[in-house]
Amino acid sequence: PNVAQTDLVTFGAAVRHARSLKGLTLDQLGHQALGRDNAKSFVSQIEHGKRQISARTAGRLITFLDM
After folding, report:
1. 14, 53, 38, 21: which is closest to 30 by C-alpha?
2. Which pTM value belongs to this model?
């Protein structure tokens, strides 16, 4: 099931804030938390609430960023 747009935006803002607190770039977060190379666009879309993601991906981000 798809997540509501407002929830995606809220989650993305929380990811962006937590990433900035850790001093990570978009690519660093994608590589370290998700095991993806060249993930800048993917993580950016998440942070801006423009991408539906799986519960597994959300969980990896939450765990890695200590959210």
Report:
1. 38
2. 0.91
Q: What is the spatial distance between Cα 30 and Cα 36, in angstroms, rounded to a whole number?
A: 5
The confidence score (pLDDT) of residue 8 equals 96
pLDDT digits (tens, 9 = 90+) for 11-38: 999 999 999 999 999 999 999 999 988 8
Helices 26-34, 55-64: axis angle to 10 degrees equals 110
In the block, which residue shows the tokens 């099931």? 1
Q: Which residue has the tokens 């998440």?
A: 46
Find how far residue 32's CA is from the centre of its chain: 12
Query: For 3-65, what is the HEC assignment?
Result: CCHHHHHHHHHHHHHHHHHHCCCHHHHHHHHHCCCCCHHHHHHHHCCCCCCCHHHHHHHHHHC
